[in-house]
Amino acid sequence: MTAETSQTLDRGLRVLKLLADTDHGLTVTELSLRLGVNRTVVYRLLATLEQHALIRRDLGGRARVGLGVLRLGRQVHPLVREAAMPALRSLAEDIGATAHLTLVDGADALAVAVVEPTWTDYHVAYRAGFRHPLDRGAAGKAILAARQHPMADPGYTLTHGELEAGACGAAAPLLGVTGVEGSVGVVMLADVVPERVGERVVEAAREVAEALS
């Protein structure tokens, strides 16, 4: 801690991080031990966070992340979308295919930003807000590949006809971005995705990750 930081705020944020890392919640005693502070301090922190709906306590007294965190999380999408747009525009124009940024939303992959090329005669229609299961389509499968190999770069994922007949997809996961799980990809009408497309998608995903870091 430095003179410019707030010890109470720091502890409150640490509480939220600890609760976010568990599915079963934590008791006051468990939080006290992990934070290295007495139970009275923890009670005050939880009471304040509960007032803002950032945590909730069940009947057994275990604290869990509250719905207020979800409301804050929804505001992340516009910020991420804005940061990603330059790389998506460049990708769409370079490849001549619809480019998209996809983020995890529960068990689904959710397209939060889409850019269509301006110079092609036709391209696949793909809209922001489109969602699909993570295990279908290149965007979701790229995210799952990053989950399965967290210490390695999984490269890019290719799919054909999984979300739309005759359409191919290529996507690469966002790597090294704390708190954001997603992918960058393109969708095109083709029988086979050219190798250059996969490499270009990886480059675009890296650009977006750098913009968000």
Fraction of residues in H or I helices: 40-55%
- CATH fold naming of the largest domain: Beta-Lactamase
- The helix-strand sequence is HHHEEHHEEEHEEEH
The DSSP helix count reads 7
CATH architecture of the largest domain: 2-Layer Sandwich
Distance between the termini: 23 Å
Label the structural class.
Answer: alpha+beta
Provide the β-strand percentage band: 15-25%
The largest β sheet comes out as:
6 strands, antiparallel
**CATH homologous superfamily placement of the largest domain:** GAF domain
- Total strands: the figure is 8
- How many domain regions? 2
Q: Provide the low-confidence segments as ranges.
A: none
| CATH class category name of the largest domain | Alpha Beta
